Amino acid sequence: MQILQQLINGLSLGSIYALLALGYTMVYGIIKLINFAHGDVYMLGAFWGYFMINKFHMSFWPALITAMIFCAIAGVIIEFLAYRPLRDSPRIVVLITAIGVSFLLENGMSYLFSSSPRDFPQVMDVQRYHLGSVSISNIQILILLTSIILMILLQLIVKRTRMGKAMRAVSVDPEAAQLIGINVDHTISFTFALGSALAGAAGVMIGLYYNSIDPLMGMTPGIKAFVAAVLGGIGLIPGAALGGFVIGIIETVVQALGFSAFRDAAVYAILIIILIVRPAGILGKTTREKV
Amino acid sequence: MKKSKFAAMAAALMMLAATFAGCANKAGQSGNSASGNTITIGGNFELSGSAAAYGSAMERGVKLAVKQINQDGGVKVGNKKMKLKLVTKDNKSDNSQAAAIATNLTTQTKASAVIGPITSGAGLAALPNMTKAKVPLITPGGTQDSLTLQKNGKVQPYMFRSCFEDSFQGKALAKYVYNNMKLKNVAILGDKSTDYAQGLIKAFKSEYQGKITTTEYYQAGDKDFQALLTKLKNKKFDALFVPGYYSEAGLIIRQAREMGLNQPIIGADGFADPKLVKIAGKKAATNVYYTTHFDPKAPASSKVDDYLKLYKSTYHEDAATFDALSYDAVYMIKQAIEDEKSTNSVKVADGLAKLKNFKGVTGTITMDKKHNPQKPVIVSKLENGTEAEATAVK
């Protein structure tokens, strides 16, 4: 029965990685950039939720939605200020800029709000439901359901709307997309907004779940979400969701088997193995690079 | 032509270097002394970064002590009364910053003694520069055993602490769990990434007479302990020992209680921060025991009452562990200066090493040969987020 319980633990952890991985994968899909500042947008979301609930006494849902809007704006601003001026630069330049943005956000927030952890206001009482020997808390259910709903919404936006169509077009060939009248800059901004909104939602949910936030909270989940995106196949939206859940479950299983000291090592070992054996990821198709 | 120019420049540089080296040598032989009527004390504080909670407590304690000493007339050096002057710098909880500040405080500020950094890692980083300048460093919170020892086992001449060391509290905890709580099975969930937790685990294991059923590890910065706790739930144990700091321990307490693990949770001084209860939640912070250096409920000396009142009236909050230890550190320096009748930093170090029956707010302190203060360990118990009782363990 312990296995089932661990599976639930893994799923709720994995849904957070999945939400973050979606942001990575969408941005990569459209401008081939690994946005290392993505984990820090998730931190911004958590802090926004913290201040909204503490200062304006919002309940959970308004805090979540305003955090998503705030992060969407933050994502667009980051893209506009840091990445857009480098649109025609080599990819490595943008990548290093992304690392710089990440440091700026982490240390800027540490400077403004101090880096000691804060307790996230508890807007919801924890209740545990027991089914036999398996127990699940209302917050775990909330995280799982919200994540899944957000992922379905995202899929609908990408597949069913004009903007989604534009996103897919730009990711296939930005120049051709521009030729048929798609505004590439707007589309890229929109992608950042979507990805960042998901990260903001993850931030608020994690704040509520663990009751502790700090300016460096985005670092490790950010990197693990990146691994999840690569594992699922970077650039592919279903791949990121799958990769997130897989990483969450692997982490949990490694600990359950008694290798708690090697948990992070296991995740990064998977990254290396995937890159060697199947660089396109689980769902990726191997395509030849056009020369 | 070019070559000769280069040679001239090199020669000039070497002369400059020689002058500087000369200065350094002179300072090295004698250490720092006070000039005029003020004794300078340096503060190498973690005012921002991950250890900021400890560092700002340290700052409050030190400032209070300096103010109090100056109000009482200052430090008696021979037959002259001298005032204390405090120069503080923020090391940002960063080891290389701590080392740079140690140099700055000893060579620029010419401090006779330095308090801080508060963590063992930063203390180790700062020490070589302190030793070079021959100025003593007192850390109020660096509990790592090896901190005051050189590689060959000899004592570090310029490293002191006002707190007790890890093995001391690890062993005290082991005794307390076995003798006072009478619990025979303990599970350990420890921080893999800090020397602090490793030292505690080692000391606890060496002293505990009961059975250690299982040892699991996490990393500092972890937030999810569900998997580990689910695993522990199926093991038999009477108490859970969590060697680590409050940020993770708070989460462990919270998640364990949510999961229905109601056994006592025990820890060391890393628990001693009000944030622990905030993160864990009041309801969850029940049946939690931890060692601490200072506790108003179990006053270790007659000075405690006055200190509590003074602290409250100055900062409008209650005094806690690390401000008390820092407060003691300043008075230890005062005592050392008065004993040696000198403000010279080498003499201050001698005085600190010889400290005996010093009455501080954290107990009566006698320095042992390894520069570890000998004093009682206090075990506090939390019920519903507030302290229910405290016991002194010898």
List the helices and strands and how they pair.
The complex is a heterodimer of chains A (291) and B (394).
Chain A: H1 2-31, H2 38-56, H3 60-83, H4 91-113, E1 128-131, E2 134-137, H5 138-160, H6 162-172, H7 174-179, H8 184-210, H9 219-232, H10 237-256, H11 263-277
Antiparallel strand pairs in A: 1-2
Chain B: H1 2-30, E1 38-45, H2 52-71, E2 75-77, E3 80-90, H3 95-108, E4 113-115, H4 120-133, E5 137-139, E6 159-161, H5 166-180, E7 185-191, H6 195-207, E8 211-218, H7 226-233, E9 239-241, H8 246-259, E10 265-267, H9 274-280, E11 288-292, H10 304-315, H11 321-340, H12 345-353, E12 358-360, E13 363-367, E14 373-374, E15 377-383, E16 386-393
Helix pairs in contact in B: 2-11, 3-4, 5-6, 7-8, 8-9, 11-12
Offer a concise description of the structure.
The complex is a heterodimer of chains A (291) and B (394). Chain A has eleven helices and two strands; from the N terminus they run H-H-H-H-E-E-H-H-H-H-H-H-H.
Textual characterization of the structure:
The complex is a heterodimer of chains A (291) and B (394). Helices cover 73% and strands 3% of the residues of chain A. By secondary structure, chain A is mainly α. A two-stranded antiparallel ribbon of chain A has the order 1-2. By secondary structure, chain B is α/β, with parallel strands linked by helices. In chain B, the strands form 3 sheets. In chain B, strands 8-7-9-10-11-15-16 form a 7-stranded mixed sheet, covered by helices on one side. In chain B, strand 9 (239-241), helix 8 (246-259) and strand 10 (265-267) form a beta-alpha-beta unit. At the A-B interface, helix 1 and helix 10 of A face strand 8, helix 7, helix 8 and helix 9 of B.
